[in-house]
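In response to reviewer comment 3 from the previous cycle, which asked for concrete evidence that the modeling workflow produces usable outputs, we include below a single protein chain processed end to end. The sequence was submitted unchanged, and the resulting structure tokens are shown without manual editing.
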Amino acid sequence: MTMTAGQYQWLELSRSAYAANIGFFRRLLGDRARLAVVVKANGYGHGIVETAGLARECGITQFCVHTIDEAAALRHAGFIEPILLLGPVPIARCSEVPALGVDCVAYNEEHLAALEAAARDAGKTVKVHLKVETGTNRQGVSAERLASFIATLKRSPHLALAAVYSHFANIEDTTNHTYAMHQLDRFNELCDAVKNAGIPAFERHLASSAATILFPKTHFDMVRVGIAQYGLWPSKETYLSYLTANGTGADHSLRPVLSWKTRIAQLKTLHSGEYIGYGCTYQTTRESRIAILPIGYSDGYDRKLSNAGYALVGGQRAPIRGRIAMNLTVLDVTDIPGVRLEDEVVLLGRQGDQEIKAETLAELAGTINYEIVSRIAGHIPRFVTE
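The workflow returned the following structure tokens.
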């Protein structure tokens, strides 16, 4: 019996594809900057523990998460590597930070006070990464508040400034990177302001996946690679900009890590003129053989793929008929010979000569590849494959 024989749906994570993607970034970085991987949002849907395990196999020693619970999940799974918590920590839970031994984003003085108290009570020092506002206008300390913030930080003996960082607002969705370069200039100015305020030594990190790929001058001491470690380009524009700068012969072989699979739970034949699914949105125009899949939008399979998307059965495209329901989806397999009960169906990934990419589903659903993968439900089993 295979590891998936008892599953009606599962994800497969390719160890070789992940290693190839990390190799791509190591070639870009050389020995200039440290490679940190972002495993927030359950590893962008790939599984936080599974992804961290693959990263560790590749020699990665720095993880980035969004929540204190994600940090705790890694610690409880046995990961002792440095973890940077990029998202806010509820003030009431700041005492967990020194206990977990993680670094924290710093962006307001109330949290500095809570972290200082927690570190003092624990008899430890907490490393903080100051997020400066360069133009994204989300988390971050503005230039106007920076002097006051630094003064508070300097009065906090149990907090140590490990790094200053920021995040790009418009580097992925355009081939015009004027605003990104404005943010880079602003970042350098604010780092100088921190140094001039009496904190001479700290690391800097700014680059996301797209910045890491496109602009070596953004690499600084560390880069934070998210979507691209999973073999997905941040955007078509990023891919185009990379090819424009490096030529079509350049190393551009990011390999998707994830495949999403299910099995046919029922096969049935419908007469011409019968309806399928809620709302009667699809009516057969011929005798049709349909396959019922035990997946739906509660699993993260986007409802907007109703009557628009397709899956792979027997190496061929089978169109979705009717509305995707909470737990069920219907395919038309009339033109695919030899389909049997519990045959494997590929929702995302490759089967035979056919492939369904996250970008394909994103285009059909009117969204981005990030959302397609990160919304895949956590209850679905993940398996690492060779």
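The chain has a mean pLDDT of 95. We consider this sufficient to address the reviewer's concern, and the full set will be provided in the supplementary archive.
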